[in-house]
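Input (structure):
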């Protein structure tokens, strides 16, 4: 065959090959998770993220298909759903509108899209989702079971703040955590095995001796009289032919809080209990169910004490080897008892589980006495110690975690949280490994009492710690972004805040990991943007909305904590800066993720709270609450912060009402927000001096940042804020955890990043750098470094790092980062910065450098979005984009503005 025929043959073959679009489906999500389990079919949705090697790409259409099996999906037999070709650029929040789905089923799906040239992409990789159990009847014969019955007289809800009084008959004492097991026989080949399970307060489940899943403290914390969460696991590959065993151990958690050691509050919804259904589908099509009932067996576990606040004790002498395997004989075990059914309805846990995310090794160890040593892990985290120990049966070791140490080397459980400790009793002569399972603490140090150090000379037979680690637990939400710049101090501040965030995102956002462990809503209200830049907390915030719905009072009040395990008094139950979380979380879920379904779902909650606030207002002013909590000098009137948040929340509610078609409400709330703004200015604004209230940083910054300042006064108010910071406060921070976020935003959004840079860099007065100079490794609760050493509420500076220095934010009219602004701020001694943020459409990246007289930036804009790029320039600058010189660009106020579509760009400005 000659060369001509070869070329012709190859050309013909190429013509026969399919032509695919320039875009590819990189990530496909169901309910914002990859291959999720426990999907509730009420308004669940699909999303996908696209990538392309070519710039200017977008989606023009999509097709989404669902099948009942992988083989049918592969054969293009879409027996469940086929959207056909939908002409739309929508690639997020695509609500499922197909036929009703069955509970407890695995479904298979994929999606493809058409690009800007109307050319189809390849199909995405096959995906799955598993539906949950929708109704109580779906649980079939499964019953709540436990090891003991609880008398209604022992119920203490809401919890007592602190401890019950001595001789109170309701005093709650911890008992050994119960073990429960169920053996069952598998005789035929298994096609599918799905386990639906909940345990209160917490559970750990195993199948044939192996732990199921990787969750820590599952399920998440809720108002158990309203909602009880359950989890769904696919354990198809974990079953074996013949005898199989499900094993469960139950911990107390927030369901049953005893009072032997430190507690923030004491109370009980009941005794530990569980419910489970294992649904087995065999390859021949038959089904079998293994359910929790009195055929299960129970026995006390070696966990002889556990308390979410006080710690945990383990006696290894009581270990039942292979208790959760088929070879174990459980004849001595007692039958499980039917337990009281919790009042709350069973709902699937939609958030990422709390898991062990990091393992820290010892940085140094100090011997502080006989059989006593203090281990320093170099970083304050939410966590638990893990030990390897060798000794003799019956010997005990005590582990005391802490954030600080005293001058004599002993740990210091400051801030009134003592005692919290873990006690381990050795069970054999072999080396043993252990860590707590149902408690945790804020810790950098672990003091070990009753054991020696490995390789240490000893003349006694004491046990020896052969290894010790510190395990970090947090919500396993994926990373959403990162930031680094040429200024090492700002990088250290970033890490300081990041560790506080990581330590306080659990199944809800905690106030701190030691003293509180409660969901004070100020943290999520003040920090949601900063948290979201670092971690994908969409699912977490959806679950927080459910917590607020459950906690709402009959009069409409949304309390300061949710779940409201403890009912506090006065502003500690009702402070608008905390309660408006119940509106502003919904606004966040819409503006940052495009979720309108949850607005409809939670709208009654928001409207009821708005009505409550109206009854509390005096001439549209809310003159009560906690105020600018932990500000320096108590310099801002309480009513100012409360009313400012009232305005912000009502304005957002008006917009959300319009989005879901509540036109009458939208008009009413718009008028109400205007009235609040007018009353606010009448009350707090000094027209002659152009100063709000006391002129404090918070008093000036909040109205500026929230758009409450009339345009004619804005410049003078801003100038007076700068004067207050520089000339009166001497570049010292006075704003507290309510106002500091607005101080940060008022400065960098109004072209004064240099002022923010100066106050942030100071290490000689209370602030971020001051805390670092004190040796902090996580953000401290107060600017002066006192109270909790791991608390996220003051971490607002991250918004400036991402939106200002890296320059990544969305246009104010945009939803879900569809329209992006890239506008880095070159400030102070910073010569380079890099930031990335994972938006619902994909990664947004900005990486800039200033070298001599050349400003260079690499940016990445996701497919299906566009960006306005605003960069520093002079009127005579020369600009190149991707190597091509640009002409005719517009210069304004020391910047140049460029419009770009999706893609990757390198821009150089000389």
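Output (sequence):
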């Amino acid at each position: 065959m000659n060369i001509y025929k070869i070329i012709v043959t190859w050309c013909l073959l190429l013509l026969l090959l399919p032509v695919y679009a320039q875009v590819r489906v990189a990530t496909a999500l169901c309910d914002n998770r990859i291959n999720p389990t426990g999907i509730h079919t009420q308004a669940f949705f699909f999303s996908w993220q696209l990538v392309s090697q070519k710039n200017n790409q977008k989606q023009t259409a999509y097709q989404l298909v669902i099948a009942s099996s992988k083989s049918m999906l592969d054969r293009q037999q879409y027996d469940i759903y086929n959207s056909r070709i939908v002409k739309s650029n929508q690639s997020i929040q695509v609500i499922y509108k197909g036929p009703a789905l069955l509970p407890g089923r695995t479904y298979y799906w994929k999606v493809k899209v058409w690009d800007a040239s109307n050319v189809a992409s390849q199909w995405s990789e096959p995906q799955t989702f598993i539906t949950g159990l929708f109704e109580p009847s779906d649980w079939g014969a499964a019953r709540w079971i436990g090891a003991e019955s609880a008398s209604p007289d022992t119920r203490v809800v809401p919890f007592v703040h602190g401890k019950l009084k001595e001789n109170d008959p309701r005093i709650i004492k911890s008992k050994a955590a119960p073990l429960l097991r169920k053996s069952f026989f598998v005789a035929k080949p298994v096609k599918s095995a799905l386990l639906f399970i909940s345990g209160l307060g917490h559970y750990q489940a195993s199948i044939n001796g192996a732990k199921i899943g990787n969750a820590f403290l599952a399920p998440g914390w809720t108002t158990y009289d309203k909602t009880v969460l359950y989890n769904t696991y696919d354990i198809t590959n974990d079953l074996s032919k013949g005898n199989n065993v499900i094993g469960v151990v139950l911990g107390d958690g927030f369901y049953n809080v005893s009072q032997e050691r430190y507690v923030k509050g004491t109370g009980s919804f009941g005794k530990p209990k569980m419910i489970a259904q294992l649904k087995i589908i065999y390859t021949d099509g038959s089904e079998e169910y293994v359910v929790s009932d009195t055929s299960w067996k129970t026995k006390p576990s070696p966990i002889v004490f556990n308390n979410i606040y006080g710690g945990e004790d383990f006696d290894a002498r009581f270990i039942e080897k292979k208790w959760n395997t088929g070879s174990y004989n459980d004849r001595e075990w007692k039958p499980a008892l039917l337990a009281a059914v919790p009042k709350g309805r069973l709902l699937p846990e939609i958030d990422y589980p709390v898991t062990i995310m990091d393992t820290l090794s010892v940085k140094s160890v100090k011997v502080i006495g006989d059989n006593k040593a203090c281990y320093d892990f170099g970083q304050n985290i939410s966590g638990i110690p893990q030990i390897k120990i060798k000794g003799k049966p019956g010997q005990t070791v005590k582990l005391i975690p802490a954030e600080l140490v005293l001058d004599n080397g002993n740990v210091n459980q400051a801030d009134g949280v003592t005692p919290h400790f873990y006690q381990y009793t050795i069970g054999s002569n072999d080396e043993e490994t252990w860590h707590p399972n149902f408690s945790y603490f804020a810790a950098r140090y672990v003091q070990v009492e009753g054991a020696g150090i490995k390789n240490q000379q000893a003349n006694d037979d004491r046990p020896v710690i052969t290894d010790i680690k510190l395990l970090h637990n947090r919500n396993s939400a994926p990373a959403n972004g990162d930031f680094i710049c040429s200024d090492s101090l700002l990088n250290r501040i970033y890490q300081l805040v990041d560790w506080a965030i990581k330590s306080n995102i659990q199944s809800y956002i905690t106030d701190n990991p030691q003293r509180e462990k409660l969901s004070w809503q100020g943290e999520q209200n003040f920090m949601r943007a900063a948290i979201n830049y670092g971690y994908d907390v969409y699912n977490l915030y959806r679950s927080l909305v459910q917590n607020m719905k459950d906690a709402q009072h009959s009069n409409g009040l949304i309390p300061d904590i949710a779940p409201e395990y403890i009912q506090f008094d006065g502003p500690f139950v009702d402070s608008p800066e905390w309660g408006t979380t119940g509106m502003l979380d919904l606004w966040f879920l819409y503006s940052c993720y495009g979720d309108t379904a949850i607005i409809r779902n939670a709208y009654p909650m928001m409207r009821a709270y708005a009505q409550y606030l109206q009854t509390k207002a005096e001439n549209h002013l809310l003159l009560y609450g906690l105020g600018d909590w932990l500000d320096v000098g108590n310099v801002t009137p309480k009513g100012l912060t409360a009313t400012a948040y009232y305005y912000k929340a009502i304005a957002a509610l008006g917009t959300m009402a319009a989005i879901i078609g509540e036109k009458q409400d939208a008009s009413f709330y718009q008028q109400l927000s205007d009235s609040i703004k007018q009353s606010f200015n009448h009350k707090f604004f000094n027209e002659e001096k152009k100063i709000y209230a006391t002129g404090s940083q918070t008093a000036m910054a909040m109205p500026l940042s929230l758009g409450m300042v009339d345009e004619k006064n804005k410049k003078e108010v801003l100038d007076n804020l700068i004067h207050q910071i520089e000339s009166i406060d001497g570049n010292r921070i006075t704003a507290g955890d309510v106002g500091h976020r607005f101080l940060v935003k008022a400065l960098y959004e109004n072209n004064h990043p240099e002022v923010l840079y100066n106050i942030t860099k100071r290490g000689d007065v209370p602030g971020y750098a001051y805390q670092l100079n004190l040796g902090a490794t996580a953000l401290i609760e107060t600017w002066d470094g006192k109270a909790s050493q791991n608390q996220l509420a003051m971490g607002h500076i991250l918004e400036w790092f991402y939106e200002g220095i890296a320059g990544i934010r969305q246009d104010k009219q945009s939803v879900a980062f569809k329209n992006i602004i890239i506008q880095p701020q070159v400030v102070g001694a910073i010569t380079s910065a890099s930031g990335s943020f994972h938006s619902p459409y994909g990664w947004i990246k900005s990486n800039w450098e200033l070298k001599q007289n050349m400003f260079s930036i690499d940016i990445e804009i996701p497919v299906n979005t566009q960006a306005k790029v605003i960069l520093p320039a002079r009127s005579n600058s020369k600009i190149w984009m991707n190597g091509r010189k640009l002409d005719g660009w517009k210069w304004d106020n020391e910047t140049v503005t460029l419009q770009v579509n999706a893609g990757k760009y390198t821009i150089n400005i000389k």
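Notes: The domain at 481-805 is CATH 1.50.10.10 (Glycosyltransferase). The first strand starts at residue 23 and ends at 30.
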